[in-house]
Write a structure and sequence with these properties.
The structure holds three protein chains of three kinds.
Chain A lengths: L3 E4 L5 H25 L4 H14 L1 H26 L7 H18 L8 H27 L3 H21 L34 H18 L1 H11 L1 H7 L3 H28 L10 H11 L4 H24 L5 H22 E4 L3 H7 L4
Antiparallel strand pairs in A: 1-2
Helix pairs in contact in A: 1-2, 1-13, 2-3, 2-12, 3-7, 3-8, 3-10, 3-11, 3-12, 4-5, 4-6, 4-10, 4-11, 5-6, 5-10, 7-8, 7-12, 8-9, 11-12, 11-13
Chain B lengths: L2 H28 L7 H17 L3 H26 L4 H20 L12 E3 L14 E3 H19 L1 H11 L1 H6 L4 H27 L11 H11 L4 H23 L6 H20 L2 H7 L11
Helix pairs in contact in B: 1-5, 1-8, 1-9, 1-10, 2-3, 2-4, 2-8, 2-9, 3-4, 3-8, 5-6, 9-10, 9-11, 10-11
Chain C lengths: L5 E10 L2 E11 L4 E5 L6 H8 L7 E6 L2 E3 L4 H7 L1 E4 L11 H6 L6 H15 L14 H13 L5 E5 L7 H16 L3 E6 L2 H7 L2 E6 L2 E6 L6 H9 L17 E10 L9 E9 L3 E5 L6 H9 L12 E3 L2 E2 L5 H6 L2 E4 L14 H9 L5 E2 L2 E2 L1 H14 L16 H13 L5 E5 L7 H16 L3 E5 L3 H7 L2 E6 L2 E2 L3 E2 L5 H8 L3 H6 L1
Parallel strand pairs in C: 3-8, 3-9, 6-7, 7-8, 13-20, 13-21, 16-19, 19-20
Antiparallel strand pairs in C: 1-2, 1-4, 4-5, 9-10, 11-12, 11-14, 14-15, 17-18, 21-22, 21-23
Helix pairs in contact in C: 11-12, 12-13, 13-14
Classes of the chains: A mainly alpha, B mainly alpha, C alpha/beta.
């Protein structure tokens, strides 16, 4: 007989905390098995992928570097996801952020001054937001599903980037490579931890986490988002504007992703190029869910996902693992998490055992 | 060959990946389930189909393997979305990410390899006509997918199974109350959708452009999802939508070969732009969506 | 007594903590109309689902003609000869009548259509086989459900609260049909909480209270008092008596309100006009599906009009058609919607957080941030004043029983101290104790000078608490009828739209 899911009277906090842990452990087991099948040494892969990132300061600082954009984007997305606004186009918003930020160094490569990098970050955030305006308008005015529109906007963003890099923004001294000029010193976000590449944008990401926490857990605005996500008809009944919630959450998502994109070109990369994003926008979806869509949970899940990126690079070098293995790992973590999170709201019951609970007297 | 006759000749083949995936998703959505993992199921089907054909097992085996691969991902989707009643949007995304990741992983050592496609089967006389002749010279899969379109149209129009699927999609509680096994039927629909997405991927990688390149599905699974909405959940309209997208993607090829003074990136974006615009036009007609839509789409069902 | 057709022995079913049925025994004789009597939440619907195989019992046995059977699906039950007419119909709106029927009856469509017409003729259940269900009235849909059951040639027909969707005149017709079926050898299980109906048609009655049987009786031998005692454990509460009192200022006006819904299957509203004054209760009667849902959303502000048409809805003397619900609330409006879960309350949120939904204006916000203490204090007061049975403000709304959640929502809206209170279906699915309490509160509010608007499908309820009644039918409102001098049958004629023809004749 099949076990049945029985709805709990109230959400289980224990299950909510355990779900991501169980999911990660299950994903580790399944993926190591997969790597064994592929003929890789599972111990070596495990060491390279999951331990090495934490074992030296230099590799851990790289983890922190990757964590910044993931944390920032995921915080923005989670606000929308909790309102059931599914922005899956953070990748495109990230790219637009990078493009907008590059306007200053590309057109004013000689400019100097401490204002440049903050201005670039602001421009980037603006660019990400502008890219989110289209899906917001389409959803609110034209009733079109934001999932499809945000995704299409991402695919278009890649083409816009290619156009700029192959055409007007190509570095004339760049041996015909599709990349822009290297940015000047003042266009770079200041380093936060000396001796590493970690810059001030990590602080911005943490600040965003705190803001997101205060907004979602304590403010009436965040409460309205939650109601809209859990029970849209109750939100309409209360008089919370759905259009406002949709627009705002898409714009917040675009803002955060755009900021992250700007920080990436004005940080570790230092120029606009094709590979500015290694799927941050998509990985952030997983980060957001794995963090339980909770601002604090996302801090933990973004650290984990960042470590996985670095670990994947390690495993590629030391255990000859294709880089795509990281994406498979990400996918499995999300799959297991979605299964595990069911038990926050439901518990399993086998037919007959429902009688057994109080049935010691009965049968 | 002029631009028009080129487009007419290639339109159906270009449309086939869209068509197969969209028809599968149409059945899934009619039963009340939204599976956003089509892109991933297509990608996995593409690489699996390619590898099987590359190793000489032939196109039939290639398509069969691709269908099975799509069904395997669909099973994971069903297990989470139907068994665990998880949020269908999140599960679809998860399965999509997993499928794309697996396709890159599996296809890693096959990158840029090529195989031979399938020969064209021509309708006598008609295929010799000027301009439109190319339309009647297509490979076997195109002809079969026309048959599948017809079969799905007829299923929803005339068959008992079609009636039951529509009932389950409209009101699963009522269907359960009169004795239909809602979850089992939805599993069936989801598995069918997975197989069709697998076939669509296999067509793209073993017939339409017989080579493997990571990321070659390039959003076609997402466009297939949009096509189901364009077609307001009706097989005939989905077919015409798929032809439109086939024509659009060929038009950009024509423009590139004839060196129109337009950036190629704009032409590559054309299908995505068209998707956004047509989606807005169709969905802003709320009455149209209500009349043809699926009332319980995306809502988990549990007793 | 002849050997029973159906017997139940020790049927038990629990949903989580809720024990819906406990050790129920029951015998249904052939050719009998057998009542299952009990108030909302007594476990009647659960019991019927067990008999029809929709749910399986945790314990207990079903006997058919004396032999034990296992029903694991409705198809099993239909094979035995059990048919069921659901309270909330299990029909598919986008399909035609004959398509709906072909979902459970095999056969070609044309043959089915002929049988539908023939059965309709024999039992007074005429309906067009090729009509789409969304185009049918509620009464016609019930006919389709009954025909669908009859086509499986049942020995036992279960009807779950069949009169709740019918106007008074149609109840008699339904009873005629049921008697004809009984005389044709079909047993009928008739589920209801209305004592007079059961006495009119049933020859046996099994009374349920809190999931247990409290009596097997012949309802014709007992008076309403005795049946009520078995059903609710005490006497029925006496009907309220609302004395006429002078009405005050106009608080709500609809002035020729028109509305064309987005949903192509919904009823358009046209030319609705009403006036409601302070200190009176106005009731809107009508069979469900005649435009009530959109009317309530237009009054609440969940559906808004363009600013140019704002005067089609006026509150406290100003045009509000373009305002959203929160804006209307600041004018002194409060609203209890017909569906509690997912609209009146968020099931996954605590009662405290559900207070915030509409009562955030009651000092619960400080510079945009939520004042948890004010929220909890408000919720505690609401729980105390309105006798909500719950562990406390931290309980999730979804865990409350229907009656208790309704008391909470009514309490929350009344705590907003409105000048105009609008309640849709105040006692739907609510047990008698809670229903009485809610009605008393509504009348008390009226006596304190509040204008109260009630939409209800239960005529008895409207006659009990209203000063005036207007009837909605196919998106039109009748003129105002004085509740004290109008008979139920007169309201009933407006409910089926027969009034206009009657006036001519």
């Amino acid at each position: 007989m099949m076990p049945m899911l029985i709805r709990r009277d109230r959400a289980s906090t224990k299950a909510a905390v355990l779900a991501p842990v169980v999911a990660v452990l299950a994903a580790i087991v399944v993926n190591l098995l997969l790597f064994m099948v592929m003929g890789k040494d599972p111990v070596a892969v495990f060491y390279a992928m999951l331990l090495e990132p934490f074992l030296s300061w230099s590799s851990f600082s790289e983890v922190l570097l990757k964590m910044g954009p993931l944390l920032l984007i995921a915080q923005g997305l989670a606000i929308g996801f909790r309102a059931k606004v599914f922005n899956i186009g953070a990748e495109g918003q990230f790219i637009l952020g990078a493009i907008f930020a590059s306007i200053i160094p590309v057109y004013f490569p000689q400019a100097t001054g401490g204002w440049i990098w903050p201005a670039m970050l602001m421009l980037g955030a603006l660019g990400g937001m502008l890219w989110a305006v289209v899906p917001a308008f389409w959803r609110v005015r034209l009733n079109a599903n934001e999932i499809l529109v945000t995704l299409m906007m991402s695919l278009i963003a890649v083409q816009v980037l290619n156009y700029l890099l192959l055409g007007p923004w190509k570095d004339p001294a760049g041996f015909n490579f599709p990349q822009s000029v290297m940015f000047q010193y003042d266009a770079m976000v200041p380093i936060l931890l000396p001796g590493t590449r970690v810059n001030v944008s990590l602080l911005l990401a943490f600040a965003a986490a705190i803001l997101a926490w205060a907004y979602m857990q304590r403010s009436f605005g965040g409460y309205q988002f939650l109601v809209g996500g859990l029970a849209p008809r109750a939100a309409a009944y209360a008089g919370f504007s759905e259009a406002k919630a949709i627009t705002l959450s898409l714009l917040i998502g675009g803002f955060a992703a755009g900021l992250a994109g700007a920080a990436e070109v004005a940080g570790p990369i230092g120029q606009l190029q094709r590979s500015i994003s290694t799927g941050y926008g998509y990985a952030a979806i997983i980060v957001a869910y794995l963090g339980g869509l909770h601002p604090l949970g996302i801090v933990a899940s973004s650290l984990l996902m960042a470590a996985l990126y670095i670990g994947g690079d390690n495993a590629m070098v030391s255990a000859d693992l294709p880089v795509a293995a990281v994406r498979v790992f990400q996918g499995t973590v999300l799959v297991f998490y979605l299964a595990a999170v069911t038990f926050v709201r439901f518990r399993l019951e086998w037919p007959g055992s429902s009688g057994a609970e109080r049935g010691s007297k009965g049968a | 060959m002029t631009g028009l006759s080129f487009i007419l000749a290639g339109m159906l083949a270009a449309a086939t990946p869209f068509l197969l995936a969209a028809l599968g998703e149409l059945v899934v959505e009619r039963s009340g389930v939204l599976n956003l993992g089509v892109e991933g199921m297509m990608a996995l089907g593409a690489v699996v189909g390619f590898i099987v054909v590359y190793h000489g097992a032939g196109h039939v085996m290639g398509f069969a393997a691709a269908g099975l691969a799509g069904m395997m991902l669909a099973l994971i989707f069903g297990w989470l979305a139907l068994g665990f009643r998880a949020n269908q949007v999140a599960v679809g995304l998860a399965v999509g990410i997993l499928g794309q990741g697996m396709s890159s992983l599996i296809g890693n050592s096959y990158e840029s390899l090529t195989i031979t496609g399938l020969p064209k089967l021509s309708v006598p006389v008609l295929s010799d006509l000027p301009v439109v002749g190319g339309l009647f010279s297509q490979d076997i899969v195109v002809w079969l997918s026309l048959l599948v379109t017809l079969a799905i149209w007829a299923m929803f129009r005339y068959s008992h199974l079609g009636l039951v699927l529509r009932a389950v999609g409209e009101n699963p509680q009522a269907a359960h109350a009169i004795g239909y096994r809602v979850i089992a039927l939805r599993y069936g629909a989801v598995m069918f959708g997975g197989a069709m997405a697998g076939f669509a991927g296999a067509y793209a990688a073993t017939v339409y452009t017989p080579l493997w390149a990571d990321g070659m599905i390039a959003g076609r699974g997402w466009i297939a999802l949009a096509l189901v909405v364009f077609g307001t959940w009706l097989a005939g309209r989905v077919f015409f939508g798929a032809c439109l997208f086939g024509a659009v993607s060929l038009a950009s090829l024509v423009a590139q070969t004839e060196a129109w003074p337009v950036p190629s990136q704009l032409l590559s974006s054309l299908p995505y732009l068209v998707t956004i615009i047509v989606l807005g036009i169709i969905t802003s007609n709320k009455r149209l969506l209500k009349e043809n839509g699926v009332a319980s789409l995306g809502e988990p069902f549990g007793k | 007594m002849p050997a029973p057709l159906l017997s139940l022995r020790g049927m038990t079913k629990s949903y989580g903590q809720i024990r819906a049925n406990r050790g129920i025994d029951l015998d249904v004789a052939p050719g009998s109309i057998h009542a299952i009597l009990g108030e909302n939440g007594a476990g009647k619907s659960t019991l019927m689902k067990l008999i029809y195989g929709v749910e399986t019992p945790d314990e207990g046995q079903i006997l058919w003609h004396g032999a034990p059977v296992r029903l694991s699906s409705p198809a099993d039950a239909r094979r035995l000869g059990v048919g069921m007419v659901f309270q909330h119909f299990s029909l598919f709106e986008t399909l035609t009548v004959v398509e709906n029927i072909s979902l459970i009856v095999p056969g070609a469509k044309s043959a089915l259509a002929d049988r539908i017409r023939a059965l309709g003729h024999d039992f007074g259940l005429e309906v067009d086989p090729f009509a789409h269900v969304h185009a049918l009235s509620v009464g016609e849909r019930q006919r389709v459900e009954i025909i669908r059951c009859l086509m499986t040639d049942p020995k036992l027909l279960i009807l779950d609260e069949p009169t709740s969707v019918l106007p008074p005149q149609a109840v008699g017709l339904l009873f005629d049909t049921l008697r004809r079926l009984r005389d044709g050898g079909v047993s009928i299980l008739f589920i209801s909480h209305k004592l007079d109906e059961i006495q009119a048609i049933c020859d046996r009655a099994t009374v349920l209270r809190a999931g247990q049987v409290t009596g097997h009786v012949d309802p014709r031998d007992h008076d309403a008092h005795a049946l009520a005692l078995m059903m609710i454990g005490r006497d029925m509460p006496p009907p309220l008596h609302a004395d006429p009192r002078p009405a005050g200022k106009v608080m709500l006006e609809l002035c020729g309100l028109d509305y064309q819904p987005d949903d192509p299957f919904a009823t358009p509203l046209s030319g609705l006009t009403l006036t409601l004054r302070a200190g009176e209760v106005l009731g809107i009667a009508g069979i469900s599906g005649n435009g009530q849902a959109d009317l309530s959303r237009l009054i609440s502000g969940e559906v808004r009009l363009p600013a140019a048409r704002r005067d089609e809805v006026r509150m406290m003397g100003q045009g509000v058609g373009h305002l959203n619900p929160a804006e209307r609330r600041t004018l002194g409006f409060a609203f209890v919607p017909e569906d509690r879960l997912g609209r009146g309350a968020v099931p996954e949120m605590t009662l405290s957080d559900n207070s915030l939904l509409t009562a955030h204006g009651q000092g619960m916000l400080k510079r945009g941030f939520i004042d948890r203490r004010a929220e909890v204090a408000f919720t505690e007061a609401c729980i105390r004043d309105f006798d909500v049975r719950t562990p406390g403000p931290e309980a999730e709304a979804g865990a409350l029983s229907g009656g208790n959640l309704q008391k909470f929502i009514v309490g929350r809206e009344m705590s907003l101290k409105p000048d105009l209170l609008f309640v849709a279906q105040p006692t739907w699915g609510v047990d008698i104790g809670a229903a009485t309490a809610i009605r008393q509160r509504l009348v008390a509010l009226r006596n304190a000078g509040v204008a109260v608007l009630v939409i209800s499908e239960e005529l008895e309820e409207l006659f009990e608490i209203c000063d005036r009644i207007q009837v909605i039918h196919k998106g039109h409102l009748s003129p105002s009828l004085d509740a004290r001098s109008t008979r139920a049958e007169d309201v009933g004629r407006w409910m089926i739209g027969a009034q206009a023809e009657g006036a001519v004749a």
